[in-house]
Specification:
This protein has 215 residues and is an alpha/beta fold. It folds into 2 domains: 115 residues, Rossmann fold; 85 residues, Regulator of K+ conductance, C-terminal domain (Alpha-Beta Plaits).
Length: 215
């Protein structure tokens, strides 16, 4: 299991550290606030009160090139940029940084961030998609054109087989799995004679515009 270093323990950073630790990851949590460090101790392998923009302190903490480092400094552009630069100079292979906007994202990528996320923008997009297509429960973009979505089957799908629905011909989408919410069992690549019931969730792949047609 890889070690993850989470720097900046606001709501975003704190919850990432907590969730990773609960799922068996070795987590080093770093923040300047003594209060926050005391709260994260039970949800981390090691909690360190430090100013992570100090490169000497980073080296003393013992961050290694193979560690995954997550930087969550909110809107403090100077701090996140400086820390990202230090991590790049330390040859950290995977640097994930939270950014408040696209301009900040471009700067972070220039100085060495391997992944930059804008949580507010991503959540806004997710909420909007939920309003546009209420039966699309979750989605995962896999390319510029294609996405994988969990879709609650509309009433017109119930009692019909995969073959009856003709999803590939009618909607240009593929059903790659079906999850039963009652048993939580997943049927991978369901057979053509699989009958859809109201407890099933369809996991489909296709263009977002095509998936939205399933209403």
């Amino acid at each position: 299991m890889k070690r993850v270093v989470v720097v900046g323990l606001g709501i975003f950073g704190f919850n990432i550290a907590k969730d990773l630790f609960k799922n068996g990851f070795e987590v080093i949590a770093i923040d300047k606030s003594k209060e926050v460090i005391n709260r994260i101790r039970d949800f981390s392998t090691k909690a360190v009160m430090a100013d992570a923009t100090d490169k000497e302190l980073l080296e003393m903490i013992g961050i290694q090139p193979d560690d995954i480092v997550i930087v969550s400094f909110g809107e403090d552009l100077a701090a996140s940029t400086l820390l990202t630069l230090h991590l790049k100079e330390m040859n950290i292979k995977r640097i994930i940084v939270k950014a408040p906007n696209e301009d900040h994202k471009r700067i972070l990528e220039k100085v060495g961030a391997t992944e930059v996320i804008i949580p507010e923008a991503e959540m806004a997009s997710k909420v909007a998609k939920g309003l546009i297509s209420p039966n699309v429960l979750d989605y995962l973009p896999v390319s510029e054109d294609f996405t994988i979505c969990e879709v609650a089957p509309p009433a017109s799908f119930l009692g019909k087989t995969i073959a009856d629905l003709r999803l590939r011909g009618s909607y240009h989408i593929e059903v790659i799995a079906i999850r039963d919410v009652l048993s939580d069992k997943i049927q991978l690549v369901p057979r053509a004679d699989f009958v859809i019931k109201d407890s099933d969730i369809l996991i489909v792949m296709g263009k977002e515009s095509d998936i939205q047609k399933i209403q």
